[in-house]
Amino acid sequence: MKIRVDGLVQGVGFRYFIWRHARSLGVTGFVKNMYDGSVLIVAEGDRESVEKLIELARRGPPAAIVENIDIQYEEPKKEFTTFFINYD
Asked: Are 72 and 6 in contact (CB under 8 A)?
């Protein structure tokens, strides 16, 4: 699943917030700041865990202001063994 989050989501601890929750939920993939100010989350896991992560992304950490969230469902590729912050 690819999740794009728009709003005030950079510089507010959003990536760390998602990383911490994804790891506790057993979700694999990554979270990354994008050049346009959005945050991209690529997540794989069981449906319940990924849906919980989406719910958390809609809220974000206390300093975040989530204005929009776009979700694209894809076939899992099982290419990740953990969840990490992508700094590329």
From this structure: no
Catalytic residue among 15, 58, 59, 86: 15
**Count helices and strands in the chain by DSSP H and E runs:** 2, 5
Give the active site residue among 4, 23, 33, 58: 33
**Annotated catalytic residue 86:** no
First to last CA, the chain: 19
pLDDT by residue, tens only, the chain of 88 residues: 999 999 999 999 999 999 999 999 999 999 999 999 999 999 999 999 999 999 999 999 999 999 999 999 888 888 999 999 999 8
Whether 59 is a known active-site residue: answer: no
Helix (H, G, I), strand (E, B) or coil at 27: coil
